[in-house]
Amino acid sequence: MAEAHQAVAFQFTITPEGIDLHLSYQALSQIYLSGLRSWKKRISRIKNRIIKGVYPASPSSWLFVVIAILATMYMQSDPSMGLIAKIREHLPLSLSLSAQGQTVLSVLLFSTLLWLSLILALRFCLKLLLSYHRWMFELHGRISTKTKVWATLVRLLSSRKPLLYSYQTSLPHLPVPSIKDTLERYLESVKPLLDVDGFQRMTRLAAEFEKSLGNRLQKYLKLKALWATNYVSDWWEEYVYLRSRSPIMVNSNYYGMDFLYVTPTSTQAARAGNTITALFLYRRKVNREELNPSRIPGTVIPLCAAQCERMFNTTRTPGEETDVLQHWQDSEFVAVYHRGRYFRLWVYRAGRLLSPREIQYQIQRILDDPSPPSPGEDKLGALTAGNRTPWAQMRKQFFSSGVNKRSLDCIEKAAFFVTLDDQEEGMMGENPSVNLDRYAKSLLHGKCYDRWFDKSFSVVVYKNGKNGLNAEHSWADAPIVAHLWEFTLATDAFHLGYTADGNCKGEIEHSLPPPQRLSWDIPLQVQMQVSESLAVAQALADDVDCHVFPFREFGKGRIKKMKLSPDSFVQLALQLAYYRDRGTFCLTYEASMTRLFREGRTETVRSSSNESCAFVLALEAGEDREHCHKLLRKAAEKHQNLYRLAMTGSGIDRHLFCLYVVSKYLGVESPFLKEVGVCLYWGDWFILCSHGCDHLDKQPQKISYMLFFKDLIFDLSTTTSESSNNPKMSFNSFKEYNESLSN
């Protein structure tokens, strides 16, 4: 926008009398305000770098150190033990400064060095404290003296209010587990799934691997851990996500829903206006680092915030062999899709964020625009939904110059993507469950061409005012997007609000330039590839059966009254449901975060354990209630312990994954790692396979059961054509059994 104003700010004509110069003072004012905002952001970033760079100390503590040293020097005492005199002797400006000036300058230099040393010492102490994780394994109400002292020290060093990224340099690095521990936990996890001969074979392969190749691979992994910030995350991002050549739609991208029972307004443009405003307010907080760092609930233990950096202005750019995540600084516009047309909507004017009412006004202009899409434009987004290599080839050949490049840049450099959907979704009518199924599928893949799946996230606003989002997975995990979406929904409904007639609040500046329609020149070859990508994406979308229904019977409060972990309860319910559905057990993937460590992402909790299988088998065999009750609690405690191990860097799968990657780099084969690849298929190797890894050929059926207690929804998702045998009934049976226990 600033460039457009600049173009009309200076106008001149050449006349016989000379040059007639005309200045647009309004345009000059807007350019000035836009530049002023830019400089304010730069100064704010420099200030934040200084504040978080000296954390857990403060910049003002430097002055305290200087005054303290000067005071001791004034009292004829030398706290530096001769270092100040040494510094004074080596000052290059000794001839141009008085003796007193040399002394003061020497004191300043010594104080600064002492201050920096103290900061490094405090940061090192904080890192050591944050490396202590035994507190997580202590029983509730039985906290040891060591943990109490530790908690006190952490609180003291964290007493200053931190910025969003203040803890980053103090977070410990993810440790590399020992080969022996990983193999022992691995064998324990597969024991209930293998027969006697199979388990003995895996035990033998594991022992051979530990004695021979395992130690060699481990040395390379420890070497990487010495210089890498996190020995897992870069390989995880590259090989699990970015190197995938299959569609990211459904396979990688995930969705978030709106309020289920509340719709703040039924006006589509108004809902879009408040939603976009709330998202930019969140981006402002992220840029200014005004958000408090995420912490373990009920503690002062911080979590890594590195994933927040690529939340906005980020796109996954396709490549022929691997994709690349590109991030830009502070785009002042969003890309909008409506009925086959693409628009660029500026949300800043003269350095200020437009009011929600102004954004609603601009959105309404897009909705009222009667122009048809240009040839090939309406389904162009299908390129991002199909296989990655064809999209990369089309992008390189037809979108690297000219009008197509300019329009594609507008989409990729936008803060985020907005779809104004012409459908109505949500809990509607007499059968809300059916509508929720359609709502979830719409957010997951839409029409396969009306979302831009490469963007870090795309916001979808429906005709009836419901909204939701579709997020790309490679740049961050779901909790980061969940915090963003929770803030957005809360700000939209409770902070920004709406007028009585359902419109956004605020005034409108009617001189706003209209949203810019993006132009395309789509040749026939690209149109053919769009059709092919759409066919691939549509087949994938048709293979997804998604069933979502409200679950109001009980929530996590009821489970806690039984003195059980809600997470353990749900995971055991899934084990029981799967066993009743399939008559067997399988390795089960549950994600645990590892953000206690710098740049940590996730680890696998292998929820299927000896204890969980024993509970399910006892329940199915009809054993007495007291015995089943004991097995239930034992299985829940085991699951909690597995979760804690995963959180604290002692998981199995990420370590095995990295060992496998090292073996591929070295060009060596391991019979154990090959067998592990098959056994891990229902764990992390399932993700690898579904993203196009060539070391596993056959893809078994995938069934996932998810229960979200926050909204009390039980969600059954199946990506196979074969339907399962009513797992809802299995879950209800489990619920009735536990109710009998509580009674």
From TrEMBL:
Its main location: mitochondrion. One of its GO terms (molecular function) is carnitine O-palmitoyltransferase activity. Residues 174-691 form the Choline/carnitine acyltransferase domain. The active site is at H473. Residues 1-47 form the Carnitine O-palmitoyltransferase N-terminal domain. InterPro entries: Carn_acyl_trans (IPR000542), CAT-like_dom_sf (IPR023213), Cho/carn_acyl_trans (IPR039551), Cho/carn_acyl_trans_2 (IPR042231), CPT_N (IPR032476). One of its GO terms (cellular component) is mitochondrial outer membrane. It is a multi-pass membrane protein. Pathway: Lipid metabolism; fatty acid beta-oxidation. It catalyses: (R)-carnitine + hexadecanoyl-CoA = O-hexadecanoyl-(R)-carnitine + CoA. Its EC number is 2.3.1.21. The chain crosses the membrane at residues 50-74, 104-126. SUPFAM superfamilies: CoA-dependent acyltransferases. Keywords: Acyltransferase, Fatty acid metabolism, Lipid metabolism, Membrane, Mitochondrion, Transferase, Transmembrane, Transmembrane helix, Transport. GO terms for biological process: carnitine metabolic process; fatty acid beta-oxidation. It is found in: Mitochondrion outer membrane. Belongs to the carnitine/choline acetyltransferase family. This is carnitine O-palmitoyltransferase. It comes from Cyprinus carpio carpio.
